[in-house]
Amino acid sequence: MQLTNFLIPLALAATVSAAPVDCLGKALNIFEDINCPLTSTAILPTIQQPNYAELSAPAASPSPIPTPLRVVLGHGTQNYTCSTNTASSKPVAAGAKAQLIDASCLAKYPDLLHSLPATIMSFNPKQLSEFLAKKLNIYSFNAYIGDHFFSDATTPVFSFTRSGGETIVGKKSENVAAPATVNAKGMTDGMTTDAVDWLKIAATEGTTNGCKSVYRVVTAGGKPPATCEGQESTVEVAYATEYWFY
């Protein structure tokens, strides 16, 4: 089965780091088209680096190369709780919340698509909001198609009801460490200490579009601090990622 390599050329990564506005601007031009048909040429990213595990591939039947049902960008927060604000306590995962933006048309431009999570994380939240408001109102043409949240600490939900679609409830089935190609700031320094794991999520209920699995890949940001020292009882850490639905 053919899967795309996540390794981003150094020149592209440097461009993303040096000019995130240009990179995001190119993507926003493509966002003017939404709901593009997806085919088997839209290839799920894989890590393909030494000493890194891979997520198992989506079921290929009946085609040797599976076609995704959806490709979306997620941007929001990974959430954690702290029982105390001391170094002896460690943050405990408490779900996530994110907006889901249609990226089906970007799937034809994989280098650009895969650069976006790190690019988004290179903006602070205020800068990102101001840039989007100035350049493009994504709400005006329905690129914002869904919401990701957790119904409890371990149950992810992907709701596309705002765009007339399905609601998928899942359970994490696999996780692997994020690759060392690009860190959460888009820099090629060989470290991804800020990037949450890549995931495979099995759809367990609520599926109305034939979805059986969801992949969280090409992550940027989202990891909690090492300890709860100096933290509030609730910790929100910004992240961006791609979600692929099969």
Automatic annotation (TrEMBL):
InterPro entries: DUF3455 (IPR021851). Residues 1-18 form the signal peptide. The keyword tRNA processing does not apply. The keyword Signal applies. Keywords: Signal. This is Malate dehydrogenase.
